[in-house]
Amino acid sequence: MRIALFVTCLADAVFPDVGRATVTLLERLGHEAVFPPTQTCCGQMHVNTGYQREAVPLVRHHVEAFEPYDVVVAPSGSCVGSVRHQHAMVARGAGDEALAGRATAVAARTYELSELLVDVLGVEDVGAYFPHRVTYHPTCHSLRMLRVDDKPLRLLRQVRGMTLLELPDADQCCGFGGTFALKNADTSTAMLADKMRNVVASGAEVATAGDSSCLMHIGGGLSRLRTGTRTLHLAEILAATA
Amino acid sequence: MGHLRGEQSFPDAARGALADSQLRRNLGHATTTIRGKRAAVVAECDDWEELRLAGEALKSSTMARLDQHLVELEERVTARGGVVHWARDAHEANAIVTRLVRETGETEVVKVKSMATQEIGLNDALAEAGITAQETDLAELIVQLGGDLGSHILVPAIHRNRAEIREIFLREMPGVDPELTAEPRRLAEAARLYLRERFLRAKVAISGANFGVAESGTLLVVESEGNGRMCLTLPETLITVMGIEKVVPTWQDLEVFLQLLPRSSTGERMNPYTSAWTGVTPGDGPQAFHLVLLDNGRTATLADEVGRAALHCIKCSACLNVCPVYERAGGHAYGSVYPGPIGAVLSPQLTGVEDNASLPYASSLCGACFDACPVRIDIPSLLVRLRAQHVDANRGGVPSPEAAAMAAASWVMADHRRFAAAETASRLGRLLGRSTGRIGSLPPPLDAWTGSRDLPRPPAESFRQWWARERGQGRARERGQS
């Protein structure tokens, strides 16, 4: 299958390894990954901070970049959440019904990584090998906006050599929340502290999730406290082989 | 507007609570307990999602014809011997209630726990008129005796623990047993003795209402302790203050709400006391009944086709108990009698968003509140919408640094060449954190991030550069040439 990769602006600029891992994984499963080169950002940061008008050109740009493709995947629950739940709303807010319709059509073909693997490609064992102790944080948008359910866990359970450890209070937000982390830095930090305590309590060497943004938050805290626990995106674990 | 607006912004008000370890423990313990109870009783219902959908649909259709339902309610209440008063705002409502109490000649009233009277600041208004209002709900009593403000819709004293309550009782309750311990049974007994005397003395009671049934003119109060029922039956005069959104068209609608409310709010299958009264009944209960219908920003909220969903709230407080922000920052940080996620959408809508501009941002948008809401209020989407209203209200004039940054980011990201150039420029960030691979401190405003979190050092190569080099046109050309 020919699959367009929406790498997301954060992975593109800061976590390119996540994009590379996604490509490696899809190709190993026998699919063709393509990177539509005009893509930039879904505009979630603008919408969630209140700058809906500024998000309109980004929505239009995103729709134009991905309209030619039948299947689109992003290694991010929150960016897929934005495409599915915000793009048409932003277009409608700007009075552009035509764009809203096109955005809805693109959204219907856009999948988060675990959704693509399990629902579209029908695989749970992706042939990965990762001999480490891992705990999984289900990010809020994957969990509650996309309802990916236990798909990431089903994929992780098939990874050879890996010990999957339960994360206490897994469904609690890590406190990132985009600009929330800056506007309410103290509350965000308090939420992060509890998340880190649970990650450490799980006994894992690696905390994984389907969103680079949440991992940037959790990983940024773990590194500051010298916990010796690191973060890796789900795609990086699924792409790993012996 | 009454008590809908705080003096501090949410981030400033939250700071104190976040540093108060006792408060954090009290809140964490209480919300975890009630979350567990709620989850267990909700799981017992096979049709929970259908009930939520029914609750949402009933609220939507009621709001669409709220004027007709309210007029019907007024007619039925009047026909059954009650008197209906309409109050545009907190000031009018307080003036009406004060006048009604004065006309009885009494200077003391007992109160049933009520958010509407909290909202309008009724107790303060009555105090100014020389009337003492005695709260009878246990948690409200603790808050009142402690000279404190409630911090939770259902459990106003959630921020207090047993030891603190014992201290408050010993200090403020006349004639309390000096040997009082912090045992819950002993504390409840002390409150019971204190309140019993007041119930028997009271000639006037003031309540709110959980529901007002239009077709029969019946008002309902749902509670756990029975103190409300004492107030609703013993005094001679009953004055009820009800937000206009609390009306339901028919008795049958209660079938849905009386299942949703107790499970969501106290984690019980059914609440212990449901009291319903219709006008006055000769020889039984209060012989004078007044209903004050309160607007206080509600019709303005109703005029907003999307935002009116906030008025669907049945004040169960399930959203507070699951909210990670509420759990850490506590209720006082919201500066309103309506704390938590629903408060963050309701208060700014009732007062106008510029009066509570920091509240729509007091959420990480994690969505737990939407999942918990028994009438499916999409709180995260409403918050995002209020943020846009706030930003739009501040357009024109000199843009704030944030607005300038957002406009610049929009311009850069609307074109992939500009975005790629910006990525290259951001690689200057590699000068930072060269020794550790992590950036540990940045200048304002980004120090809000690095105060507690490292930032990864930008990579040497962006994904799109890697793609162009490895898989893109560059490589294809190479292949073609070789």
Short description:
The complex is a heterodimer of chains A (about 240) and B (about 475). Chain A has two domains: about 1-120, Rossmann fold, CATH 3.40.50; about 135-240, Rossmann fold, CATH 3.40.50. Chain A contains 14 helices and eight strands.
Task: Please describe what this structure looks like.
- The complex is a heterodimer of chains A (242) and B (482).
- Chain A contains 14 helices and 8 strands.
- Chain A has helices at 9-13, 16-28, 44-49, 52-66, 77-85, 87-93, 97-108, 113-120, 140-145, 151-157, 180-183, 185-201, 212-224, 234-239; strands at residues 2-5, 32-34, 72-74, 110-112, 133-136, 163-165, 206-209, 230-233.
- The model of chain A has no long low-confidence stretch (mean pLDDT 97).
- Chain A is globular and about 50 Å long.
- In chain A, helix 13 links the parallel strand 7 (206-209) and strand 8 (230-233).
- In chain A, helix 4 (52-66) packs across helix 7 and helix 6 runs antiparallel to helix 7 (97-108).
- Chain A is of the alpha/beta class and 242 residues long.
- Chain A has a 4-stranded parallel β-sheet with strand order 2-1-3-4, sandwiched between helices. Chain A has a 4-stranded parallel β-sheet with strand order 6-5-7-8, with helices on both faces.
- Chain A folds into 2 domains: 2-120, Rossmann fold, CATH 3.40.50; 133-239, Rossmann fold (3-Layer(aba) Sandwich).
- Chain B has 482 residues and is of the alpha/beta class.
- Helix content of chain B is 51%, strand content 11%.
- Chain B has 23 helices and 12 strands.
- Chain B has a 6-stranded parallel β-sheet, sandwiched between helices. A 4-stranded mixed β-sheet of chain B has the order 8-5-6-9.
- In chain B, a hairpin with a 4-residue loop joins strand 5 (211-213) and strand 6 (218-223).
- Chain B is globular and about 90 Å long.
- Chain B starts with 9 loop residues before the first helix and ends with a helix.
